[in-house]
Structure formats: structure tokens, C-alpha cells
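We emphasize that the prediction below concerns an isolated chain of 318 residues; any contacts that depend on oligomerization or on bound cofactors are therefore not represented. The input was used exactly as deposited, without trimming of termini.
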Amino acid sequence: MANPYSIPTTIDTVVLNTSLADYQKRLVDQKYNEGVIEKLVNESGTKKIIDGGNSIVETLIKDKQDDGGFYLNGDPLNVNQGDDLSTVEFLWQNAYEPIQITRDEERQNSGASHKILDLVATKTKLANKAIRDRLDQAFSTPVAAANRLYDLETIVNTGTLGTLNGSTATYWQSTVTASGAFATQGLTDMTTATYAVSSAANIDNPTIYITTKTVFQKFEQTRLPLERISNGNLTANAGFKNLTFKGVPLTYGNYISTGLLFGLNMNYIYLAVDSATDYITTPFISPTNQTVKVAFILWRGNLLTNNRRRHFKLTSIS
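Result of the prediction step, given as a C-alpha cell string:
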């Protein structure tokens, strides 16, 4: 009978995979505590789980329907209907982060079973933070390697997004305003842009304003005399210290580009994620030419909008 207290000579792949699976389960409740853009989407409830497919397709209203009218008695009625709909297609983007256990690390941690558990947990935590940080940057600003992943700068713009070119499809444009010194025109530009993208006084208004830490501080200086600092129960407020503009939270992101401020309607921004690749972790494998075991955290998705004209962007803020 084997001695249950004997020290193992190696930690096999089954132990590693089991340890990794257990740790990933414990991470579930912590998944959205990091990454500002992903957190905003999660707080807004606009994450969409999609069961694979070649791409993500949205149907859009491109024109007002004007086929009906008024009639009396036996007046003939129009039976034709205009082409008022359009579609836009978005491709998937993949991201990954490795979790590597070298032979030396495996042997150094083979003295007791809890040590390898700690090692796997630590490596997994680091990889998890790394992939979320990488995605937060790619959601905020264009990243060359993530050429299929859309960011706020591209979404809130007037050019091509997905398979539609906003330059020709004018309904597929955001409001983009060149601003300037925040102290003299920042609040005026925010007000004008907010009205430009709103459907009515209390309908389809921006639900969050997000900018850089520098612009956030400039905004704070304009609000301090009014003591508008709020930490109430507002959209995206969990974990954020927000200021408010027109009663709507304003916060700052980790990777928003210099001089930018976004007014976003989070009802129309969502994170599409492949149901089988939502921060999944692969089993550990050993390459043929290395004394290591490697697993990967994998993610497949995209940041999208289905109503581009409900968002605005201020540029060149100083």
C-alpha cells in the first residue's frame, strides 16, 4: 500500500489541470473587477454571449419609414414599403495569455501538494490580470495587433466601423467635436454634444462620460465649488469615485488617449463574447522541445455598437 504521506517525485498534468480548474472557479466573482471598459459594459448589463459563428451581424434602421398616411372613405392605400433597414457585420478578435510552469518550478514546489497549488494560483492570477489589462487597452484605443477588435476611438467616430463606412452611410456617424481649453469651453462643448446625440430631454441621453485622468481633474476643478462629488447608486458607480454631469457619472479610464472625452450611451454599446471562449483556460501541455508545461487563457469577442449616432467624442482637450 502506498504511503499517503510520501512526497511525490513529480506533479503530474492531472494535478495541474485540477488545480487550475479549481482556481478559475474561485475567480468567477472577481472577473470584472479590473478593466474599466469591460466593467462599464458589465455594470450596464450589455454583455452578449453568442454561440460561435463566422461573424456578428446587427440590423440597423437607416431611414425613417414614410409609407403610410391619412385616408378617408375609399381612398387607395399605398402597399409599397421603402428599404429602411441595413445590416453591419463585425468580425471576431481572439486574445490569449499563457500560464507557464517550468520543470525547475515544478521540482521546487514538489515538496508538498499545497505548494504547487499556490504556484498555479499565482501564475493564473498574473495571467488573468495581464489579459484583462491588454483588453482594457485595446477597448480604449487602437492597438495594431488587435486589428479586428474595436475600441472607443473607432466606435465613436465618423469613418468605417464593421462593414459600414460612416462617410457614405451618414446615419452611421457619431458626433465628433474638436474642443480646446477645458477651463473655458469644456462644459459648453459637453453640453452641446450631449444635446446633439440625445433623442429627447430624457430619452436616449448619454449614460456615462469617460475621459483621461488629466481631463477628469480639470472637470473636478470646475465642480469643487458646487461639491458635485457623488458616490450614489448610479450607472457604473460600483468601485468608481465619480463626478457627475447633468446627473450622469463621469469617470476616467486607464488607457483613454490624451485630450479625449467620450459621452456614451451604454444601451447601445455591448461586448459580444463567444460562449465557448469567455476567458476559458486550456489544459496544460508540454512542448516537444522545452521542459515546461503551458496552459492558455483564451478570449474571443468584440466591443460593438448598434447605434453609433448616440455617442459623442470631444478631441484636443487641453
